[in-house]
Amino acid sequence: MERSDRKIGFLSAVPITVILMLSFTAPLLVVLLFSVMPPKVFTLAHVPDFSSYGVLFSQGYYRSLLWSLGTALAATVLLFLICWPLAFAMAKVFKGFTLFITVAVVITLFVSENIRLFGWVLTLMKGGLIEGHLRAWVGWSFEGALYNVPVIIFGLVYVYFPFMLFPLVQGISMVPDDARQAAADLGATRRQIFWEVDLPLSAPGIVIGSLLTFVLGAGALAESKLLGGQAVIVIADEIETAFTYGQNWPLGSALSIILIIIIGSLAVFGVSRVDLDKIMGRRR
Q1: Which pLDDT score is estimated for 280?
Q2: H-helix or E-strand containing 250?
Q3: What is the largest CA-CA distance in the chain?
Q4: Quick check: 112 pLDDT over 80?
Q5: Weakest mean pLDDT among 20-34, 120-134, 206-220
Q6: What is the C-alpha to C-alpha distance for residues 56 and 223, in angstroms, rounded to an integer?
């Protein structure tokens, strides 16, 4: 019976597996092929040309890569610190109010990311909502808060807030209340309960939320362009420029492959330490 169920499951998975292979693997293979073409041509060479990979260091593209990874890491840490209290409250304190908070957060995703960021541009720019009202009411004036690294990180935190919050809620909800109460009865302080009970047992949610926000933040472009005004150039901007203005598809593909390898390695490393069966509720 078990063997029959496995066979049925395998056959049922074949169609979606084929679709995923065509949708995800095929485009990646095309990008990989472009990355080993000679620069600024659109034909495959008889011998793979890896010169586009060499410019990562020779032309300073590694700086853009480091900026992308650095801002994504900073945003991920800030998101964890911001979302943990709210996620804990949603999972353990006001459970009946959780649906309202969830709907309120999800509604923001119905509006385009670019539109929401343009709203912040109008709010933070010189003469915008904040500076304009302060100047009119109390005579204060400043140059605006745009076009710097902190506002880029703020944009990442704002946009990817739901992607950290909801996995954290799921992870914290997996922590048994009995375990926390037992630790308290044994004399553990709140700090000890947090470090030795809450964090280890909610680790799957923390890992998933951190991976989501870091991966999305590392490939983000709109935040640096709209809020940062290209105060720093991120790797996604370099890739876009190579594919469009530069018409250097091998370079854009090589930079894309490098980013995919780095992000993919981090994702595999993180997911390998997550018990997906436990997250899905198949094992307690």
Answers
A1: 47
A2: helix 249-271
A3: 79
A4: yes
A5: 120-134
A6: 23
Angle at 90 between CA 116 and CA 152, to 5 degrees: 30
> Distance between CA 148 and CA 220 in Å, rounded?
16
Residue with tokens 């500076």: 131
Closest CA to 204 of 177, 179, 169: 169
Q: Which of 201, 203, 183, 205 is nearest to 192 (CA)?
A: 183
Q: Is the pLDDT of residue 195 over 80?
A: yes
How far, in Å, CA of 124 to CA of 133, rounded? 11
Give the chain's domains with CATH numbers. 58-279 (1.10.3720.10)
Question: Quick check: 251 pLDDT over 70?
Answer: yes
d(CA 176, CA 157): 29
At position 156, the amino acid (one-letter code) is L
Contact 160, 79 (CB under 8 A): yes
Both tokens of 133, joined, read 């009202």
Band of pLDDT at residue 141, cut at 50, 70 and 90: low
CA pair distance 193, 42, nearest whole angstrom = 59
Mean pLDDT of 101-123: 88
Percent of the chain with pLDDT over 70: 88
Contact yes or no for 258/40 (Cβ under 8 A): no
| Among candidate residues 224, 220, 219, 203, the one with its CA nearest the CA of residue 272 | 203
Cβ neighbours around 92 below 10 Å, total: 15
202: exposed, middle or buried (Cβ count in 10 Å: 0-12, 13-18, 19+): buried
Is the Cβ–Cβ distance between 75 and 217 less than 8 Å? Answer: yes
The larger pLDDT score, comparing residue 207 to residue 98, is at 207
pTM of the model: 0.85
Six token digits for residue 275: 């018990």
